Amino acid sequence: MKPPLEGKSVVLGVTGSIAAFKAAELASKLVQSGARVGVVLTAAGAEFVPPLTFRGLTQGTVIVDMFAAAEEHIELARRADIVVVAPATATSIARLAQGLAEDMVSLTVLATRAPVVVCPAMDNQMFENAVTQANLETLRSRGVTIVGPEEGRLATGRMGLGRLSETDSILGAIRYVLGREGDLAGRKVVVTAGGTREPIDPVRYVGNYSSGKMGYAVAEAARDRGAEVVLVSAPTGLPTPFGVRLVAVGRAVEMRDAVVGECRGAQVLVMAAAVADYHPATTAVQKIKRRDPTLTLELERTPDVLAEAGEGFLKVGFAAESEDLRANARRKLEAKGLDLIVANDITAAGSGFGSDTNRVVILDRGGHEEQLPLLSKYEVAQRLWDRIVPLLPKRRRRR
Predict the structure, then answer these.
(1) Catalytic-labelled residue, pool 129, 135, 208, 358
(2) pLDDT > 90: what percent of the chain?
(3) How many CB atoms lie under 10 A from the CB of residue 157?
(4) Do 169 and 211 share a domain, yes or no?
(5) Contact assessment for residue 192 and residue 255, using Cβ atoms and an 8 Å cutoff
(6) Structure pTM?
């Protein structure tokens, strides 16, 4: 499978912030994702990270002096599929909002017709200033995507809102913007992830080993294809993918309620969560003390989320099995009326809970099976959406 940004032309604008060192990591990861990367820097940006660093990382065009670059500086803007300014200082944001072309970064943004992503990084009081906020609102009104900033320790040593967003968040934003016209554009999809937790007392619960990684990969892949994605997730510790709306739940009943509500108006439900089959009949109000040699729990069935989710949309399930993989998956597909089911053997190498890879079989109603090799969970997710998209009704073209 090709990398997620293969063939895309990304222009990275770097301005004069201490966070400019993170732009080098971003450039490297863009190249690893298959993108062709050109870099434009302000003079101040080049003071923090020299152009030679970006040339070595990208093997692409790197420009600081717009007068020395002749026509190349305009062509870079015209060839771009997306322009990303990271980090963007308060000064650079002001220039972009006013439509100035005083340096290579502002000139490139002004000259491009590609979508623009701006990632602010500055002192929290500068970010909170009414002028900066007004400039950001101006950019938003023009269709610019603003990513961050994040809360954390700033260059001054203070804590506040002003840190450049993490590289993975910026990459997610780039993929989100570039995927807006994909084959899932205009579709709402609901994805579940993680393992539900059924409380025994205030500190203990009945749960499972699900990491949530597969469900999050399914959500990311749908986002990258233009879908409106709602991720109904039990606790995982994973960051929420950019552009995905998270609905956090804990128990199976909470997941059922969230799924039922969110599936109204959805075209696809992908149940990648590991929903507990049983929950304690009663939950102790106080912590159970270790006094007796044994502890007996009475368990009751939890709601069947797929059965209660509703009708009128495509349903895809997951089956994590330790034996009789295909037979058990086929029974689940038929019993729950699924359109597709993704089955994996949790005892197989690279396919267990918490791994970054998976080896699955995709089964459909017609009795067909597709065995996939060991792939990253994101690649598995993309292959799954390749199977789902043809099953969706054709969209009406907008007039």
Answers:
(1) 208
(2) 64
(3) 6
(4) no
(5) yes
(6) 0.89
Q: Which pLDDT value is given to residue 177? A: 95
Task: Report the candidate in 346, 352, 342 with the shortest Cα–Cα distance to residue 382.
Answer: 342
How many Cα atoms within 13 Å fall on the side-chain side of residue 231?
Answer: 27
- The secondary structure of 308-333, three-state, reads HCCCCCEEEEEEEECCCHHHHHHHHH
The tokens for 149 are 């900033």
* 129 classed as catalytic: no
Phi, psi angles (nearest 5°) of residue 207 = -145, -160
State how far the alpha carbon of 84 is from the alpha carbons of 87, 119, 129, 163, 340, in Å: 9, 8, 23, 16, 38
pLDDT category at 161 given cuts 50, 70, 90 is confident
Q: Which tokens sit at 282?
A: 């009663």
pLDDT of residue 398: 37
User: Is the pLDDT assigned to residue 110 strictly greater than 80?
Assistant: yes
pLDDT in tens, 282-296: 998 999 888 888 888
Arithmetic mean of pLDDT, 119-135: 94
Residue 139 to residue 133: CA distance in whole angstroms? 10
What is the domain-level CATH number for residue 68?
A: 3.40.50.1950
Q: Are residues 173 and 192 in the same domain?
A: no
Domain boundaries, position 383: 188-391
